[in-house]
Amino acid sequence: MRVAILDDYHGVAQRYADWTVLGPQAAVHAFDQCLPEGPGRIEALAPFDVIVAMRERTPFPAGLIRALPRLKLLVTTGMRNNAIDMQACKANGVLVCGAPGSGQAANATSELAWAMILALFKRLPQEQAAMRAGLWETGMPQILAGKRLGVVGLGKLGVATATVGKAFGMDVVAWSPNLTDERAAQAGVRRVDKQALFATCDVVSLHLVLGQSTRHVVDAASLAAMKPTAFLVNTSRAGLVDQAALFDALRAGRLAGAGLDVYEVEPLPADDPLRAMDNVVLTPHLGYVSELNFREFYGNAVQAVQAWAQGAPIRVLS
C-alpha cells in the first residue's frame, strides 16, 4: 500500500502522527511542495493507492480522479472538501473519508482575522516597511473604538470575531443570507441588510461557507457601496469575493485596503499583482494552521487509512 500525503509545506506530517501503525506493507511519502496542475501532478500521484489531501489545497476534479486508476482511498483533512468531485470518486470506486481537526483550534481563523484588522487600522505593514527604510511615523493609525465592524456570516467563527469587536468598543452588525434578528441578538449584535452593512461599516470580515448561493456574495456592487476609508478582510474562501472587482477597487483607491488569507489560485503565484500592493495584508492561507489542529488532522488521517485497510472505513464522506 502506497500512501501520499499532499501539501505538507511545514514538513510535519510524519512527525505529528504515527504512520508506522499502518504496518510494514505501507510506504508513506509526504510532498512538501504544491504539485503543479497538469501531467506532472498525474505522474506524481499515479503510483499511490491512498492520498491524504490537506483541506482544499489540491483540487481533485473528475479528470484527475479518472487519471489515477490505482487510487482507492482519498482522505481529506476536515469533514468537508468542495475541491473533491465526490460523484467522480464514487463513479471510479474511490472512497472519500474525513479527518477532523481540533475543536479547540477552531478560533484560529478569527484570531487571524483580528490580526489583519489590527494591522490594517494601525498601518503595521506600511510602518514596518518605513522603519526598515530608516523613516519614522509616516502615517496616522486609526482607533477601533467607535468604528463599525460588519460580520458576514454569524456562525462559530463569525460570533468569535464579533465578540472581539465588541470588546474593542466597536459597533458590531452582521448579515448573511439566512441570518435572523433572533440569531443576531443571541450573539449580541444587530442584523442589518446587506446593502447597509457594506455601505456603513469601517471594516467587513467574511466568515461564510462557500457554496452556490454564496459565490461572489461580495460582488462589484457590494464593493462599490463601501466607504473609501473601509477595509475588507477575507479569511474564509476567495470565491466569496469577485476577485477582479476587488483588485480594481484596491488599485483605484475606492477601498482603503484589504486583509487576505485565501486566493483563487493557491499558492499565490510569485508574480501576482496583489503581492505588490502596499494597502493589502497578505498571509498564505494560515487561518486553520496550528500545531494543535495539524496533530488532530494527521492523527485522524492515520485512523482513517488504518480503518479502511482493515475493511471497516470510518467517517465516510462519499
Verbal overview:
The chain is of the alpha/beta class. Helices cover 33% and strands 15% of the residues. It contains twelve helices and twelve strands. It has helices at 13-16, 39-45, 62-66, 86-91, 108-121, 124-132, 156-167, 181-186, 194-200, 220-225, 243-252, 291-309; strands spanning 2-5, 27-30, 50-53, 73-77, 95-99, 148-152, 171-175, 190-191, 203-206, 231-234, 257-260, 280-282. The strands form two sheets. A seven-stranded parallel beta sheet has the order 8-7-6-9-10-11-12, with helices on both faces. Strands 2-1-3-4-5 form a five-stranded parallel beta sheet. Strand 3, helix 3 and strand 4 (73-77) form a beta-alpha-beta unit. Helix 5 crosses helix 7. The longest helix is centred in the last third of the chain and has 19 residues, at 291-309. The chain starts with a strand and ends in a 9-residue tail after the last helix. 39% of the residues are buried. The model has no long low-confidence stretch (mean pLDDT 97).
